[in-house]
Amino acid sequence: MDPKGWENKRVQFAEELTTFYFEAINESTGRKAFSFGDFLLADGSISPYYFDFRTMYSYPEYLMKIVDMIITCIEYNIFQHKKENFNPLTVTQRIAGIPNASLGLAALVSASLRIPSFYCDMKPLYTESRYAIQGSLKPGDNVLILDDLITTGMRKMETIKIIRECGGNVQAVIVVIDRQEGGKEVLHEKGIKLHSLITASEFAEIAYKKGLINEAEKTTIIQHIRQRRQRKGLGTKLVLFDYL
């Protein structure tokens, strides 16, 4: 198992994952898991499109395929040299979810790998980081953080801060979608690797090729990414399927 092998599998899964986001529909609102509009994100910015992972919980077949792909990502990039009787707990002692969208996802991956999980409650009422840990974390534990997506990395850094203050060691962050708005670079500055199943620009390219969005909608996604990156002083060249 090597990074190249993972990249090949990721590319193969990307088209299927993109289709999931157009087929999964919230029957209460009639909105697909991916939609265009004006959306207020957690960092206070407005986005012309939105990825709603919560909708996937009503589509167990799609959800479990995503879980399986995340496990493949972990096997390739975290465990690396998995053998027949390999015990995941020798490498990773905890999996951390981030409220709220990814908690179910983290729980499913945790149960599949038999690795204990927890999440960090970000409520400001906690005066000490240890009280924010919902579950169990011991000093020295290696922790893998899972989330549905990353934008600026703000929530990830809050989680990392709590884990480190409690003595945990963050191995990496794995997300379903990287919106490519600076989160990867923020994590990199702190020495933490980000792995994603797909990036927003890859999603746009695949959706356009499959006829799921038109050229103007594809341009909307790409321009938004580039504008956000430019404001942060980041590169605006978006390379498809070479994102390790």
Automatic annotation (TrEMBL):
Keywords: Glycosyltransferase, Magnesium, Pyrimidine biosynthesis, Transferase. CDD domains: PRTases_typeI. 5-phospho-alpha-D-ribose 1-diphosphate binds at residues 147-155. It is an enzyme of class 2 (transferase). Orotate binds at residues 151, 179. Its EC number is 2.4.2.10. Its cofactor is Mg(2+). InterPro entries: OPRT, PRTase-like, PRTase_dom. Pathway: Pyrimidine metabolism; UMP biosynthesis via de novo pathway; UMP from orotate: step 1/2. GO terms for molecular function: magnesium ion binding; orotate phosphoribosyltransferase activity. GO terms for biological process: 'de novo' UMP biosynthetic process; pyrimidine nucleobase biosynthetic process. Homodimer. Belongs to the purine/pyrimidine phosphoribosyltransferase family. PyrE subfamily. Catalyzes the transfer of a ribosyl phosphate group from 5-phosphoribose 1-diphosphate to orotate, leading to the formation of orotidine monophosphate (OMP). This is Orotate phosphoribosyltransferase. It comes from candidate division WOR-3 bacterium. The gene is pyrE.
